[in-house]
């Protein structure tokens, strides 16, 4: 009863807020032409010099070296810059910040974490990330539903989001706050599921609470012994397949945290949408990833950050050993021709700095254009916005950034984004 009274009471205020928000979200009425010294066509690698884009409402209408300038057009000249599609981060944690590791569930309330997540979303957008996949609130439940919905309603600035709610993990598993006094029952960073039936039940509850996709922890805890990674699996192939099937029934996908074999193989066999971290992949796993077009999301930025910010020399040595191992395996994965997407795992390191991920992928062996294609084309597909974002083409959403110089010659240009448009609205002039 109380529930309905509260709902009825809340409705009018809510309706006002939403109508105001809808107004704020409206793209400007006048068409916009963006002009810059260069424009990169991501699919072909063609560099137009100069480049122009006509934006009408929320969509791109025309792209070329020169486009029609309709009457009343607002011309924005970005000078010696390169126009690119908005950056996509396929692995973020809006609900994490530096220093939040496990104990955030004890030390920070969910409302306070939600406010920080709103700031994180803004920081990522201003850095040029116009679309992101949030891989788990790490103990804040479905609070990411509120962040996504507030962004979509124009109440707060942020990227287009695909969200998972909490990730899912086993009892006593990789994210179960296992380093503390068990009698205290420190809250897990994930939702528990220990069988196929429990996976399905948790997925249905998360779906009810607003999740867009499913995030599952498939491996951990990781150790490097004698130069080799050991990362125990958490779910069998049959259990992952049950989760993938339930996600498919709901029209969505499963992304897994999976560092090593055999968990990475089980994930590929089960048909997940992405294998995140993907440090150790067998020949058979890579064959399946090519065949099913399952991208690896290496997340070098987080490994690099932990190696550089360890608490002790021994910890630094462990992190460095894991990163070195990862770099060696990445070179094999590139040679094997598996698909990649770009995800940074930002959150434990500061939001807005994660374009470093693209720099690291180039540093460790990929060509700049290949990294941009992995980020934008594979990223758009992974997030379920294929042919909507990730390229500068007529009919696509006007998610556009400008970077100084030429990112094909110096990929670090993406770390200095100077202009951001999302959905036809200039969010960073
Ligand atoms: Zn993560």
CATH hierarchy: architecture of the largest domain: Alpha-Beta Barrel
Query: How many whole angstroms does the radius of gyration measure?
Result: 22 Å
| Strand composition percent | 15-25%
Stretches where pLDDT is under 50 for at least 5 consecutive residues are: 1-24
Summed up, the helix count is 12
- Give me the oligomer status: single chain
How many β strands by DSSP? 21
Roughly what is the average pLDDT, rounded to an integer? Answer: 93
Strand order of the largest sheet: 3-2-7-19-20-21
Provide the CATH top-level class of the largest domain: Alpha Beta
Remind me, CATH topology of the largest domain? TIM Barrel
Helix content: 25-40%
Which SSEs are present, and which pair or pack?
Blueprint: H1 2-25, E1 32-36, E2 38-41, E3 46-48, E4 51-56, E5 59-64, E6 74-77, E7 81-85, E8 87-92, H2 104-107, H3 110-126, E9 129-134, H4 143-152, E10 160-163, E11 167-169, E12 190-192, H5 196-208, E13 214-217, E14 223-225, E15 228-230, H6 237-249, E16 254-258, H7 263-270, E17 274-277, H8 283-292, E18 296-297, H9 300-308, H10 313-336, H11 356-363, H12 368-382, E19 400-404, E20 419-422, E21 425-428
Parallel strand pairs: 1-6, 2-7, 8-9, 9-10, 11-12, 13-16, 16-17, 17-18
Antiparallel strand pairs: 1-4, 2-3, 4-5, 7-19, 14-15, 19-20, 20-21
Helix pairs in contact: 3-4, 5-6, 6-7, 7-8, 9-10, 11-12
The protein binds zinc ion.
């Amino acid at each position: 009863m109380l529930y309905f009274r509260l709902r009825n009471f809340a409705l009018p205020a809510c309706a006002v807020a939403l109508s105001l928000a809808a107004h704020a979200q409206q793209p400007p009425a006048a068409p916009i032409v963006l002009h810059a010294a260069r424009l990169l066509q991501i699919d072909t690698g063609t560099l137009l010099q100069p480049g122009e884009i006509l934006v009408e409402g929320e969509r791109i209408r025309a792209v070329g070296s020169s486009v029609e300038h309709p009457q009343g057009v607002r011309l924005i000249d970005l000078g010696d810059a390169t126009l690119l599609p908005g950056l996509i981060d396929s692995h973020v944690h809006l609900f994490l910040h530096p220093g939040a590791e496990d104990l955030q569930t004890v030390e920070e309330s969910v409302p306070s974490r939600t406010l920080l997540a709103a700031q994180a979303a803004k920081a990522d957008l201003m850095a040029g990330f116009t679309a992101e996949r949030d891989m788990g609130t790490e103990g804040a439940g479905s609070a990411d539903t509120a962040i996504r919905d507030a962004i979509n309603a124009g109440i707060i600035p942020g990227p287009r989001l695909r969200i998972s709610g909490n990730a899912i993990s086993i009892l006593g598993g990789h994210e179960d706050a296992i380093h503390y006094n068990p009698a205290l029952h420190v809250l897990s960073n994930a939702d528990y599921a220990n069988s196929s039936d429990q996976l399905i039940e948790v997925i249905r509850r998360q779906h009810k609470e607003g999740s867009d996709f499913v995030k599952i922890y498939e491996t951990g805890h990781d150790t490097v012994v004698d130069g080799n990674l050991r990362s125990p699996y958490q779910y069998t192939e049959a259990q992952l397949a049950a989760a993938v099937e339930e996600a498919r029934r709901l029209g969505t996908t499963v992304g897994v945290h999976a560092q090593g074999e055999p968990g990475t193989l089980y994930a590929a066999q089960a048909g997940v949408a992405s294998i995140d971290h993907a440090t150790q992949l067998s020949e058979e796993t890579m064959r399946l990833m090519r065949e099913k077009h399952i991208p690896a999301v290496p997340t070098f930025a987080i490994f690099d950050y932990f190696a550089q910010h360890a608490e002790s020399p021994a910890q630094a040595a462990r992190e460095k050993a894991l990163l070195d191992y990862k770099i060696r395996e990445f070179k094999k994965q590139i040679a094997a021709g598996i698909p990649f997407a770009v995800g940074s795992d930002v959150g434990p390191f500061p939001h807005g700095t994660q374009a470093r991920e693209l720099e690291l992928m180039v540093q460790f062996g990929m060509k700049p254009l290949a990294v941009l294609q992995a980020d934008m084309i594979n990223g758009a597909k992974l997030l379920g916005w294929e042919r909507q974002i990730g390229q500068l083409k007529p009919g696509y959403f006007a998610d556009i950034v400008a970077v100084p110089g030429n990112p094909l010659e110096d990929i670090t240009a993406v770390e200095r984004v100077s202009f951001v448009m999302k959905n036809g609205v200039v969010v960073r002039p």
